[in-house]
Amino acid sequence: MVRVEVLAVGKELLIGRTLNTNAHWIGKRLALMGTMIKEITTVDDDLAEISEGLAAVLSRRPGFVVVIGGLGPTPDDMTLKGVAMGTGRRMSLNRRALSLIRDHYARRGMPGVELTPARRKMAVLPSGATPLPNLAGTAPGVRLVEGDSVVFCLPGVPVEMRSIFRRSVEPEIRASVGRLSRAAVTLKLEGIYESALAPLIRRELRRNPGVYIKSHPRGLREGVSRIELDIVVVGKKQDDAEAAMRGIARKMAEEVTKAGGVLRSAGVT
pLDDT-based confidence at 181, cuts 50/70/90? Predict the structure, then answer.
């Protein structure tokens, strides 16, 4: 499996001011490709923390690193400088990035806007970096290669992050992952506790290594335990993945019934 890690930058994430919906969204996109985020690191808006955090991520030699947040014009937007420090690169004005910023203002009907120091700051990139078009905002995304890893730096504003991810990041990760198919179902169970379900899951995982089976307790209703059980199969052929998923789901439903539980519904996800 291709290793993908996320480095999220921003004090607002650490103090509970902002929920990290960006990592949540990326995780879902990767799951649909047949891979997943292996680790999420969150750091403050601090040069040392950003550079040290990135160095720690790169030491694990992931195929891809997605750095999110801190690309804007304000003083606390210091992600790119931290990335440069963490990879031993210089910072310099990137003419292509500057052109992308000009294009952004032109699209907004402001072709002659002054490129103030704050606006030019968004075009100062680590050496060797390639700017990525941001069709939803001002600050370009950034791509650079460091050793065995491709590092993408994306804005923290969700609509901008998603736009650049879909356009520039996802195609490259998808090409590396290869053509994989995913089949998933959620079983809604009642009348069985997670402690009783655990050995059934363990037995099925031994029969099917590599399959994802995860229980999610949903509390009690009128004294009856409710659990959602996710089953995900990834394979090279869609028909094979779906057949395996259906077989595992059928077997789990049978085992739950034997243990005194009830399958209320099954929904493909």
Answer: confident
What separation in angstroms does the CA of 60 have from each of 2, 6, 14, 200, 209?
12, 12, 23, 34, 24
Kindly state whether residues 209 and 144 are assigned to the same domain: no
Residue 93: pLDDT over 80: yes
Q: Is 222 exposed, middle or buried (0-12, 13-18, 19+ CB in 10 A)?
A: exposed
Residue 146 has pLDDT above 90, yes or no: yes
pTM of the complete model:
0.87
Would you call 68 exposed, middle or buried from its count of C-beta atoms within 10 A (0-12, 13-18, 19+)? buried
Q: What is the number of domains present in the chain?
A: 2
Distances from the Cα of 253 to the Cα of 183, 190, 201, angstroms: 17, 11, 11
H or E element in which residue 58 lies:
helix 47-59
CATH number assigned to the domain comprising residue 23? 3.40.980.10
220 forms beta bridges with 225
Its sign, for the CA torsion 70, 72, 75, 81, is positive
The CA distance from 45 to 51, in Å, is 11
Q: Which of 177, 211, 236 is the last residue of a domain?
A: 177
- Burial category of 15 from C-beta neighbours within 10 Å (exposed 0-12, middle 13-18, buried 19 and up): exposed
Tell me the residue range of the domain where 190 lies.
181-268
Q: Are 229 and 189 in contact (CB under 8 A)?
A: yes
Calculate the CA 22 to chain-centre distance: 7
> Do residues 222 and 137 both lie within one domain?
no
Residue 44 backbone dihedrals phi, psi, to 5 degrees? -75, 165
Q: Which residues pair with 152 in a beta bridge?
A: 66, 143
